[in-house]
Amino acid sequence: MDYHIRLHVTTAVIVITLGITVSLITSTVVGARAYRARSVEANRRAQTITVKGSTRQRIRSDRAVWHIGVHGEGQTLQEAFGVLDAGVKRVQRFLTEQGFADGEIGLCAIDTNTHYRHDEKGQETHEIVGYGLQRAFVVTTGDVARVEQSAGRVTELIQEGILVASRAPAYYYTYLPQLRIDLMAAASGDARSRAQKIAASTGCQLGELRDAQMGVLQITQPDSTETSGYGVYDTTTIEKDVTAVVTATFGIQAD
């Protein structure tokens, strides 16, 4: 009886031991396969290619801002103001004659400068010898062609004795937010095309897009190669080139 009991116990121990061993082997095989699968996936994910895509588009400004300064000089404030007022009225009439609406013409406050006499050593004294007054017009309009034409003619008023100074008009494009989206799509397409050619030349297939980052827009004069890390926004010309660059990372797989 004792013999049979010990036999059964011994058999049970062997069976349990075999079961544990098999379980450990199975777990080890499953774990190894999972590790290899993760390793393969990690390697697959690590296989990438990063390229830059770009696009350029010619645009036409749709907003102009033009500053015109009028001066008045005189020995007294009254005299200086009389000269200034006559100049302001003449410039106002000139702008009206050029076809600008009242809502497009802004008139700033008067700036006053006091002129003091200098002694024989060139030192400024407290004696007032005259005054200089200045007032600025700001023309803001969507008619950029009208501004371009008028800016070239306003200084003709100097021949009439008007102390007028014209700044170069600044030209802007007001639809940049939408344009940025369109340019990013075009630059991303260019990046994919470049990546496909590079991948094909190395015997690989291009995978999914992993990352895309758009650089700052470069808004330059036509055909300019000027760039800046902070972006360029040229306002001196009506026609402009807008260049966008996208840095894109794609997955690649061997054929």
Description:
The protein is an alpha+beta fold. It folds into three domains: 1-46; 47-60 and 175-254, Protein of unknown function (DUF541), domain 1 (Translation Initiation Factor IF3), CATH 3.30.110.170; 63-172, 2-Layer Sandwich (Alpha-Beta Plaits), CATH 3.30.70.2970. Helices cover 39% and strands 36% of the residues. It contains four helices and eleven strands. It has helices spanning 2-46, 77-97, 144-151, 176-201, and strands at residues 48-60, 63-74, 105-107, 111-118, 124-141, 163-166, 170-172, 204-214, 218-220, 232-233, 239-254. The strands form two sheets. Strands 2, 3, 4, 5, 6 and 7 form a six-stranded antiparallel sheet that branches. A hairpin with a 5-residue loop joins strand 4 and strand 5 (124-141). The two termini are 70 Å apart. Mean pLDDT is 86; it is low at 1-7 and 39-43.
What keywords describe this structure?
six-stranded antiparallel sheet; 255 residues; five-stranded mixed sheet; single chain; Translation Initiation Factor IF3; 4 helices; alpha+beta; disordered N terminus; 3 domains; elongated; Alpha-Beta Plaits
